[in-house]
Amino acid sequence: QVQLKESGGGLVQPGGSLSLSCTASGYPLNIEIMGWFRQNPGNRRELVATITSSGDTVYGDSVKERFTITKDNSKNTAYLQMNTLKPEDTAVYYCYSRSRLSGVTSRDDWGQGTRVSVSS
User: Fold this and answer.
1) Which residues pair with 34 in a beta bridge?
2) Which of 8, 9, 55, 114 has minimal CB crowding within 10 Å?
3) Which tens digits make up the pLDDT trace of 39-66?
């Protein structure tokens, strides 16, 4: 019902910057939350950042003051600006959305993931 397409992953040197985007499509499209989680092999998938339809944001402790999430409601797109990247930021980043399907039902959707590698 909801498809999430991520872009912007790649290789960057420590201290560098990278920007991710995620665009949602489908019908019905009543998205309440968008954001990113990340995961490395052997680790739990962890919160990076989320943003609600009204603009409220939540950041994981490890990325506060370095990452910024924004959105464009007209494009159904969320953006993640990542600055001062560290090797420990290396992970697969998964776009996430929570959609309102009815008055009493919501659903979580996930993108395919985009790889971010921070290395010299």
Assistant:
1) 51, 97
2) 55
3) 998 889 999 999 999 999 999 999 999 9
